[in-house]
Specification:
Strand content: 15-25%
Low-confidence stretches: none
Largest sheet: 8 strands, parallel
Shape: globular
Number of helices: 9
Mean pLDDT: 96
Number of strands: 8
Helix content: 40-55%
Bound molecules: pyridoxal-5'-phosphate
């Protein structure tokens, strides 16, 4: 799929988000579209910017820096969210570049983020990733450990706003979205980052405030070119 369809795809997704919100019994107060541009070059990003979209998600700090530093000069109101795992040695760059980090998943990272936020003088919005499916290969805290980790991050005085999950590929996502919403409710956290290209409508029914959609906007990612 070429860049010529991107603005059209974007508008279609925005319309589907509105429709899903209308159909939801209890939609979140807002649902924002994080357009996931990882693995896509500037030629794919520009049509989305031209269509007026400003909120983008990236998985890797270095890739994001290379692509977005020049674009941020041109479009100062761009908002960037980190949705992939963060290494502590990239925390400073992440704090400097991103407006939100969806993948806080361990005490060591929280402590380093605290230090770097103070050094850099920025406080990105933070979300804790919850491994709702308790998959060994997946990042995130186990649901049973979520409340204690939330308390720990709060005690550090970090800008904690919500929770994020990536449901297992081979299971219906709804129970995972329901669990994430319940954990966020219990902790009185406003953001629920859940739902991707294939399941964002369902996530919205369960109260998603941020849906992270890549393929349905930008097309398939070409992993062979990196
Ligand atoms: C890549 C990615 C997405 C986007 O997935 P699509 O299926 O392309 O919409 C969403 N969330 C995370 C954490 C991702 O890594």
């Amino acid at each position: 799929m070429g860049p010529e369809h991107i603005a059209e795809n974007l508008n279609l997704i925005l319309a589907r988000i509105e429709a899903a919100r209308k159909g939801a019994l209890k939609p979140a107060p807002f649902t924002r579209l994080v357009a996931v541009s990882k693995m896509h070059d500037t030629a794919h990003i520009r049509p989305a910017l031209a269509a007026g979209h400003r909120l983008f998600g990236e998985s890797r700090v270095q890739e994001a820096q290379a692509k977005w530093a020049p674009l941020k000069q041109e479009f100062p109101d761009i908002e960037l969210h980190l949705i992939g795992p963060l290494q502590t040695n990239k925390a400073r760059e992440a704090v400097a570049l991103f407006d939100a980090i969806h993948s806080v998943d361990r005490p060591k990272l929280a402590q380093v983020l605290k230090t770097e936020c103070e050094k850099v003088g920025r406080a990105p919005e933070l979300l804790i990733q919850v491994n709702t499916g308790e998959e060994p290969q997946k990042a995130g805290v186990a649901p049973k450990d979520a409340a204690a980790f939330i308390a720990e991050v709060r005690a550090l005085g970090l800008n904690l706003r919500g929770l994020m999950c990536i449901p297992p590929l081979d299971e219906p996502p709804a129970p995972h979205f329901a669990l994430l919403a319940k954990l966020a409710d219990e902790a009185d956290l406003p953001y629920r980052s859940m739902g991707m290209s294939d399941d964002f409508d369902t996530a919205i029914r369960y109260g998603a405030t941020h849906v992270r959609v890549g393929t349905a906007i930008f097309g398939e990612r070409d992993y062979t070119s990196v």
